[in-house]
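FAQ: What does the model actually see?

It sees only this:
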Amino acid sequence: MIEIRWDWSYSHLDDVAEKTWQHIQLLVIPLVLGFAIAFLLAILAYHRRSAIGPITAVTGLLYTIPALAAFAVLRPVFGLELPTAVIPLTTYTLLILFVNTLAGLRSVPPDVEEAARAMGYSSWSRLLRIRLPLALPLIMAGVRVAAVTTIGLVTVASIIGGDRFGGLGQFITEGLDTRFDTKIYLGAVGSVILAFVVDALLVGMQRLLTPWTRVRAAEG
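And it is asked to produce this:
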């Protein structure tokens, strides 16, 4: 029978806050690094279509590596330090972010590009003022998927990293080791809630950055 010790949860709120913050850090750092790398790769692939195949193949290969194996391989190299978790978590975001960013950039109608070029926009101006705003919905869709995936993978990192980089997953690992249901459910439910909150925040950010999509939806 499952037994939840609410009194234990209330008395360990500081612990919960610390692990939640650690989980958030292990989400934000790989997501930012992954987006920066994927964005540069998408720009390269947009201008050189011959690069799409190799980039997709490499990022796809990195995505297929089992998370636990990646953490285990890097642990002897970096020990129980942040790079052991950050490097694999970053590589897992690359395929999703690259594909969506490239799809967003390629979704810009050619006539819009031609009009901007005719108006004297430079290549960088067209990227920043034309392509990126129009590509943003697809880019943000990729960011949302990558964020939720990373939140789940951080819980796996707790098996290798323990209290150094396990986030809320540490509660699950410790709960399974000690057969303490409260910790298991605290870690699991906390991770799910965090995923919902982050996804909602990203949706809100997308709406703020693309107000014209709300106008278009209202007119429809």
